[in-house]
């Protein structure tokens, strides 16, 4: 089993098997898969997200990300691999004392500060394309935003860096039907920035 | 006992992180947080501190003159010893604990409970870099600046009042002041204020980032712990610092002019 999994890792964009005795199920997404929605229950999702963000599978679990078996990585390799992944939490991941603009360029300010000032036209275009109002959204504090606006701001923040793998948690969850329809455009917006990227939605399992 | 050790260790680790990661100030988001913190702790607190400083300075002078039947030299000495070296930094520290210590602990505890600290990790941003470094530096610098305000207002106000109630002119009092004061007094109070500010901020950040639970009830508990422990830390630093500088006086290198 271990040898078989190790052989498959290079072909996977995301592969995860929980430890024996953990929640049932597995995620197996091949490289080059543009967009996949994976129904998962809460327990499975929590374990997968924890393993993915730390790139450290729980004892007995197995994780492969962007062709690499995460279990055998050193610290430097793990950091390098982590920089190729983005995660959009269900609540958008906003920081409450920053307005929309500051939230969107927060990560960019740490990693590529020179691009921040030039990012405004692109940010506005992305918000506009995804059905938001740039002027209003950029000035709002998270407490003034709807859930869709929080998800949108969090997503635009990811699109500015467009990493190779984007994992979105419960993208349409908790949204009004109109906003839910707008999220259908999210994967296309990502692939416009990163045509070879993989977009994975972790949706609630139907029985949840 | 174990909890005390854990809290001391945690706070020490945070302080070490700040010293080690000073350079993150070059990142615009950290610099913006620093500016926000200085505005909140320093600039927006000046009105309150001016009033308190003036009251304390005039109160001390009034008591000294009344109880000790002081002359100009003694009144100035009291201002120097009490206000410049001790009360100034302490008043500023108490004000900062009341305003910024509680605010920082509450804000960070809420961020922790609502998952915002995790959101920073998801973005590959070290929460200590983004949240702790600018708050510690901002509060330390602001406290030093507030101390200067208090000293200026309390000493200046005290001398103005003294000139009105004892037989000495303002210029005579000012002359005594400049004769008796040494640069060490100012350096002493500023360094002490920086230490007070650093300690208050580190302790407030520690309790904010480690609330005792994940419910909303943990927020006021974090704030109470931050205020209590910050106050104790300020008192301990004050005693240790006074002993080091004016007691054994750094192996006798410095002695206070009295």
Give a written overview of the molecule.
The complex is a heterodimer of chains A (208) and B (258). Chain A has 208 residues and is an alpha/beta fold. Chain A is 41% helix and 18% strand. Chain A has a single domain (2-204), classed as 3-Layer(aba) Sandwich (Rossmann fold). Chain A has helices spanning 2-8, 42-54, 75-82, 100-104, 106-111, 120-129, 134-139, 147-161, 177-183, 186-193; strands spanning 12-17, 27-30, 35-40, 62-65, 68-69, 85-88, 165-169, 198-204. In chain A, strands 2-1-4-5 form a 4-stranded antiparallel beta sheet, covered by helices on one side. The two termini of chain A are 30 Å apart. With 258 residues, chain B is an all-alpha fold. Chain B has one domain (2-252). Helix content of chain B is 84%, strand content 0%. Chain B has helices at residues 2-20, 28-41, 46-68, 72-113, 116-122, 127-165, 170-180, 183-209, 218-247, 249-252. The relative contact order of chain B is 0.16. The mean pLDDT of chain B is 86.
In short:
The complex is a heterodimer of chains A (208) and B (258). With 208 residues, chain A is α/β, with parallel strands linked by helices.
Q: Compute the CA-based radius of gyration of chain B.
A: 20 Å
Q: Kindly report how far apart the N and C termini of chain A lie.
A: 30 Å
Identify the quaternary structure here.
Answer: heterodimer
Strand order, largest beta sheet of chain A: 2-1-4-5
Q: Taking Cα atoms only, what radius of gyration of chain A do you get, to the nearest Å?
A: 17 Å
- Percent of residues in β-strands of chain A: 15-25%
Q: State the end-to-end distance of chain B.
A: 42 Å
- Point out poorly predicted stretches of chain A: none
């Amino acid at each position: 089993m271990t040898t078989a999994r190790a052989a498959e890792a290079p072909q996977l964009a995301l592969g995860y098997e929980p430890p024996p005795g953990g929640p049932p199920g597995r995620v197996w997404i091949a490289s080059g898969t543009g967009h996949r929605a994976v129904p998962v229950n809460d327990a499975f999702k929590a374990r997968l997200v924890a393993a993915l963000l730390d790139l450290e599978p729980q004892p007995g679990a197995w994780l492969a990300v962007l062709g690499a078996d995460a279990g055998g990585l050193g610290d430097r390799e793990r950091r390098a691999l982590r920089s190729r992944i983005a995660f959009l939490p269900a609540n958008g991941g906003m920081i409450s004392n920053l307005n929309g603009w500051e939230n969107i360029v927060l990560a960019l300010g740490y990693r590529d500060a020179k691009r921040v000032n030039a990012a405004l036209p692109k940010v506005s275009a992305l918000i506009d394309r995804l059905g938001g109002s740039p002027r209003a959204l950029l000035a709002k504090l998270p407490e003034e935003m709807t859930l869709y606006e929080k998800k949108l701001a969090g997503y635009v923040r990811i699109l500015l860096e467009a990493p190779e793998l984007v994992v979105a948690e419960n993208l349409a969850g908790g949204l009004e039907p109109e906003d839910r329809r707008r999220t259908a455009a999210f994967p296309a917006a990502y692939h416009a920035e990163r045509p070879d990227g993989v977009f994975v939605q972790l949706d609630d399992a139907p029985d949840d | 006992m174990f909890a005390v050790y854990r809290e001391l260790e945690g706070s020490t680790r945070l302080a070490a992180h700040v010293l080690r990661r000073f350079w993150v100030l070059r990142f615009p988001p950290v610099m913006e947080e620093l500016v926000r913190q200085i505005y909140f702790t320093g600039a927006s607190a000046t009105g309150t501190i001016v009033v308190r400083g003036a009251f304390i300075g005039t109160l001390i002078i009034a008591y000294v003159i009344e109880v000790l039947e002081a002359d100009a030299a003694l009144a100035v000495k009291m201002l120097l010893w009490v206000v410049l070296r001790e009360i100034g930094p302490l008043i500023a520290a108490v004000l900062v604990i009341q305003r910024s210590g509680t605010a920082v602990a509450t804000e960070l505890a809420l961020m922790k409970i609502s998952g915002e600290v995790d959101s920073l990790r998801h973005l590959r941003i070290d929460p200590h870099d983004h949240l702790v470094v600018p708050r510690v530096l901002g509060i330390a610098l602001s406290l030093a600046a507030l101390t200067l305000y208090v000293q200026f207002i309390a000493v200046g106000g005290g001398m103005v009042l003294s000139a009105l109630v004892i037989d000495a002119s303002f210029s005579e009092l000012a002359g005594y002041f400049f004769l008796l004061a040494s640069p060490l007094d100012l350096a002493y109070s500023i360094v002490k204020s920086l230490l007070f500010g650093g300690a208050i901020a580190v302790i407030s950040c520690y309790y904010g980032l480690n609330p005792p639970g994940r419910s909303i009830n943990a927020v006021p508990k974090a704030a109470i712990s931050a205020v209590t422990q910050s106050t104790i830390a300020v008192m301990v630093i004050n005693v240790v610092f006074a002993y080091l500088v004016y007691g054994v006086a750094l192996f006798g290198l410095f002695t206070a002019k009295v």
